[in-house]
Amino acid sequence: MSGSSHEVDPVALEAAVRAGHEADAVRSRLLWGAGIVFIVLTFIGVIAVAVLRPLMIRSQEKDYPPPSPLAASYGRTEPPAPRLQVDPALDIYDHRKAEQQVLTSYGWVDQKSGVVRIPIERAMGLLVERGIQAPPPAAAAAPSGAAPGAQP
Fold first, then answer.
1. Rounded distance, CA 152 to CA 146, Å?
2. Which residue among 86, 89, 135, 151 is least packed, with the fewest CB closer than 10 Å?
3. d(CA 42, CA 37)
4. Is residue 100 in some structural domain?
5. Is 36 exposed, middle or buried (0-12, 13-18, 19+ CB in 10 A)?
6. Paired strand residues for 115
7. Residue 6: pLDDT band by 50, 70, 90 thresholds?
8. How many domains does the chain fold into?
9. 0.85 exceeded by the pTM?
10. What's the pLDDT score for residue 61?
11. N-terminal to C-terminal alpha carbon distance within the chain
12. What does the pLDDT look like over 98-139, one tens digit per residue?
């Protein structure tokens, strides 16, 4: 096996070397023709868009009259639920940021009752210092079949 699947004509090769180049594999007339066809089709497309666009705009304006001038005074209204999420990644980021703020800050849960929330780290530190208190004896003495706080 010589490695080449086609044989070279030595006479043609010698003539090409004497001429200083090889013969063109593709006719230049074909390339020029394809280029001109491409340019003509592009030009026709641009003209078609320039002619059809105003016709389509007029058709749309005829089918859909302009909105009432009073519509601007009412303001923008949101569509009814459920609405699509525009940016789900930003929504989950904002949600997690709000959760993190609640879990790491002090604040009122119910100001009338005096119930507050504290950061998780602080709550765990208080549990370590004070320990977990045993439940009241009334809850521990309740029968196993009865619900806690149920009266017999």
1. 9
2. 151
3. 9
4. yes
5. exposed
6. 110
7. low
8. 2
9. no
10. 85
11. 102
12. 999 999 999 998 999 999 999 999 989 988 998 888 777 875
pLDDT at 150 over 60: no
Task: Identify the burial level of 4 via C-beta atoms within 10 angstroms of its C-beta, where 0-12 means exposed, 13-18 middle and 19 or more buried.
Answer: exposed
How many angstroms separate the CA atoms of 100 and 109, rounded? 16
Burial degree of 85 (CB within 10 A; 0-12, 13-18, 19+): exposed
The per-residue pLDDT for range 48-84, each reduced to its tens digit, is: 999 999 999 998 888 887 777 777 777 777 778 887 8
Element (H, E) at 12: helix 10-19
Q: Residue 94: which domain range?
A: 88-131
- Residue carrying structure tokens 């058709």: 59
Query: Strands (DSSP E) along the chain, which ranges?
Result: 107-110, 115-117
**Does residue 41 surpass a pLDDT of 60?**
yes
* Bridge partners of residue 108, in order along the sequence: 116
Whole-number Å distance between alpha carbons of 25 and 33: 16
In a domain, 152, yes or no: no
